[in-house]
Design brief:
This protein is of the alpha/beta class and 291 residues long. The protein folds into 2 domains: 5-130, Rossmann fold (3-Layer(aba) Sandwich); 166-276, Topoisomerase I, Chain A, domain 4 (Orthogonal Bundle). The protein contains 11 helices and 5 strands; from the N terminus they run βαβαβαβαβααααααα. The chain has helices spanning 15-26, 41-50, 70-77, 92-100, 114-154, 158-165, 170-173, 175-198, 204-217, 222-237, 242-290; strands at 5-11, 32-38, 55-59, 83-87, 105-108. A 5-stranded parallel beta sheet has the order 2-1-3-4-5, sandwiched between helices. Helix 1 (15-26) crosses helix 5 (114-154), helix 2 runs parallel beside helix 3 and helix 10 (222-237) packs antiparallel against helix 11 (242-290). The longest helix has 49 residues, at 242-290. The termini are far apart.
């Protein structure tokens, strides 16, 4: 207990109240706090985007905090950081509303001491940690179900792939090449996320088309596309946050469909070229016979 130390962002525009909170936490037993104070919500959102904090203490009566979505904006900026709201004596109902809206707890200023405040902070951090773990479990289960559904979708087309394209899955027949292609597909996923997040233009469509040409030259089929997508996506979501994993899955749904479409176009062009070449050869043969 004596080794515990937490970093706190205190959002409080009343200097006397801010000093009172600091003093209370300084005298809390068995725990220490590194308190950084800002007096405006806008400054707090900036700090939350730039640094990591264990907990936020948010005064609900900030001068720039009169808009109803202030707590929501704080939660959105740092969704994994627990928030304990500070209310006035007359705002007890506001504290309850804040808990319903996403805060972990509320403290009535002037009606608490350092130990009570410290205990509220510790409990808020623990509850947030448990909530985050549960959400991660649910996300992992959802991701596994989605990838499993994708893999099951590929199973019925295995025989079709063999009949139409003359080979089994390239994951088994050409494992090294398969890994290289999956890696390239994963890089395209990264570019797609970067394009969405930072509005950077990447010509992923052209690169996907080139990738389709490459796997088409291997006589790949729908099963191979799904295998490539599954392996690349699993690698990308393995060690990332739930939010980023969801972004990969969302982008992947679009990308795998695009790759399927480009592969289908590749084979259509091949088929059209072969048919046209056959017609030309047949016409020349007839001309030769007539001569």
């Amino acid at each position: 207990m004596s080794d515990e130390q937490f970093k706190i962002l205190l959002i409080e525009d009343n200097p006397d109240d801010a000093r009172m909170v600091r003093e209370m936490l300084a005298y809390a037993k068995g725990i220490s706090f590194d308190v950084e104070c800002v007096d405006r919500l806008s400054a707090a959102l900036e700090r939350l985007g730039a640094d990591e904090f264990d907990v936020v203490l948010l005064d609900l009566s900030l001068q720039d905090n009169q808009e109803p979505d202030a707590l929501a904006r704080t939660c959105a900026q740092a969704p994994d950081v627990p928030i304990v709201v500070l209310t006035g004596i007359e705002d007890d109902s506001a504290g309850l509303d804040a808990v319903r809206a996403g805060a972990q707890d509320y403290i009535v200023k002037g009606w608490t001491d350092g130990n009570v405040l410290a205990r509220s902070i510790r409990y808020a951090i623990e509850r947030q940690r448990l909530n985050t773990e549960l959400e991660q479990v649910h996300r992992n289960e959802q991701q596994e179900r989605e990838l499993l559904a994708m893999e099951r979708l590929s199973a019925p087309v295995t025989a079709v792939t063999s009949r139409m394209y003359g080979s089994g899955p390239i994951r088994k027949s050409l494992p090294t090449v398969f890994d290289e292609i999956s890696g390239e597909y994963g890089q395209l996923l990264d570019l797609a996320l970067e394009q969405q997040a930072f509005k950077v233009e990447h010509d992923t469509s052209a690169e996907l088309n080139a990738l389709a040409e490459r796997i088409g030259s291997l006589r790949a089929g729908p099963r191979d596309v799904i295998d490539i997508h599954s392996q690349a996506t699993k690698a990308k979501i393995r060690d990332v946050t739930g939010q980023k994993a969801k972004a990969y899955l969302d982008e992947g749904r679009l990308m795998v469909l695009k790759l399927m479409g480009y592969l289908a176009s590749h084979y259509r062009n091949q088929s059209f070229g072969a048919s046209r070449a056959g017609m030309v050869a047949s016409t020349k043969g007839k001309e030769t016979q007539n001569e």
